[in-house]
Write a structure and sequence with these properties.
The protein is an alpha/beta fold and 234 residues long. Helix content is 39%, strand content 19%.
Length: 234
């Protein structure tokens, strides 16, 4: 039997590599191809998508917009990404379903835990949008929550760097990459893996987190299969 995993894809994963925003069809097609390959290997994959390539709720709130309103707009942005990913996955010949915490029955199913598990058991790629359905919670918290609910073995967080470093590897070329960390290492050192709510939820449920570089072709397949890419937090 394969593994059941919960994969977090930020909105930036959908964006044009040069522009940094919007939805790039070729980028989405590549993501879909790796998800279908992982599914074809027998693994059950649930994907939680962000929406930062379209709208950033937190930064808009910082600019003066009401935080709850900004977060709801961000949740709607995740639905757009989810629909794009579903279309790409199905174009690759694999069934996919979108479930959203916001009720938009015309375009996606509402999130129902047992139905979500059933989709995974039937071999469908499950794409989860709308965050938790509540403002003030990040998609990091969403993927931790959904992973616990569906019984995932691991949370996979796709980033633009090779894993978790002791400093920003973009500004500091001497930053050190960690192969493995504990939850308390992350919380105590203030490492930017996921927000503290998500880390705490994973820690309380003994759910490991693997952080890896999505820019490397094949890394999604490797991470889903359990290969030691990036940094493992447990």
């Amino acid at each position: 039997m394969g593994r059941r995993v919960a994969l977090k894809l930020s909105g930036e994963a959908f964006a044009d590599p040069e522009l940094g925003y919007g939805i790039d069809p070729e980028t989405v097609r590549q993501l879909a191809g790796e998800l279908v390959e992982a599914r074809g290997a027998g693994h059950e994959v649930a994907v939680v998508v962000g929406g930062g390539n379209i709208f950033r709720g937190l930064s808009s709130a910082a600019a003066g917009m009401d935080r709850a309103n900004a977060d709801y707009m961000g949740m709607l942005a995740t639905v757009i990404n989810a629909l794009a990913l579903r279309d790409a996955v199905e174009s690759e010949g694999c069934a996919a379903r979108v479930q959203t915490a916001l009720r938009i029955e015309q375009v996606a199913e509402p999130y129902i835990r047992l139905r979500a598990i059933r989709h995974l058991e039937k071999g469908r790629v499950l794409i989860l949008a709308g965050g938790t359905g509540n403002p003030f919670f990040s998609t990091d918290t969403t993927v931790a929550l959904r992973a616990v609910e569906i019984g995932a073995e691991v949370v996979l967080k796709a980033t633009k760097v090779d894993g978790v470093f002791d400093d920003d590897p973009v500004s500091n070329p001497d930053a050190r990459l960690f192969d493995e960390l504990t939850y308390m290492d992350v919380l105590g050192k203030g490492l930017r893996v996921m927000d503290s709510t998500a880390i705490t939820m994973c820690m309380e449920n003994n759910l490991p987190i693997r952080v890896f570089n999505i820019s490397v072709p094949g890394n999604i397949v490797r991470a889903v299969a359990g290969e030691p890419v990036g940094t493992l937090v447990r």
